[in-house]
Design a protein that fits this description.
Elements (H helix, E strand, L loop, with lengths): L7 H11 L26 H7 L1 H9 L1 H4 L3 E4 L4 H6 L6 E6 L7 H11 L5 E8 L1 H10 L9 E6 L19 E3 L1
Parallel strand pairs: 1-2, 2-3, 3-4, 4-5
Helix pairs in contact: 2-3
């Protein structure tokens, strides 16, 4: 039996149930074990989109239903990625206490933050010297932002967001 016999609706249903539970979704069903958010889980759909043309079109056409986003993270050329990708929501994920933030990574964060109308999730764990520059860029309205986690790598340093920061859909904030 070939997978090609499945119609688009059936495939989309399978894709939907294979996706990881996002950080901000609650799991109220006791029959389904809670899947944990792991590093890279927001990129789950990348492999599906590379299987074949049919799957790529189906996944990208159903981006909202599947809760897809592009991930800006360590070592990714963010400007190039955003120039060559569909206009999906963004997840900024620079969360690794054991990894140094390069100049390119910092530029990627700043470049992604300029697209505030597309940002859905932000997870940062970076040195104070870099964090101060990033905090200055987190001002104004972020209409799609649902999850914000910012951790400083310095002891006893609190994070204070600018007074102009607005995020009407923000569900979880950890500073």
């Amino acid at each position: 039996m070939s997978i090609q016999i499945f119609n688009d609706d059936s495939l989309l249903n399978v894709f939907y149930h294979c996706r990881p539970i996002p950080l901000d979704e609650d799991d109220d069903d006791d029959d389904i074990p809670r899947r944990t958010q792991s590093r890279g889980s927001e990129r789950w759909w990348y492999d599906l989109a590379q299987v074949c043309r049919k799957w790529r079109f189906l996944v990208l056409a159903s981006a909202s239903h599947l809760n897809l986003c592009l991930v800006c993270t360590f070592g990714k050329p963010v400007a190039e990625m955003l120039a060559n990708s569909p206009p999906l929501p963004l997840a900024i994920d620079y969360f690794d206490e054991n990894r140094e933030l390069t100049t390119e990574d910092e530029a990627g964060i700043q470049f992604a933050l300029q697209r505030r109308h597309r940002i859905r999730r932000v997870r940062l764990c970076i040195p104070v010297s870099n964090l101060q520059k990033v905090i200055l860029a987190i001002d104004g309205e972020f209409p799609m932002l649902e999850y914000l986690f910012i951790k400083s790598l310095a002891v006893d340093k609190s994070v204070v967001l600018p007074e102009t920061f607005q995020a009407p859909l923000l569900c979880r904030t950890i500073l």
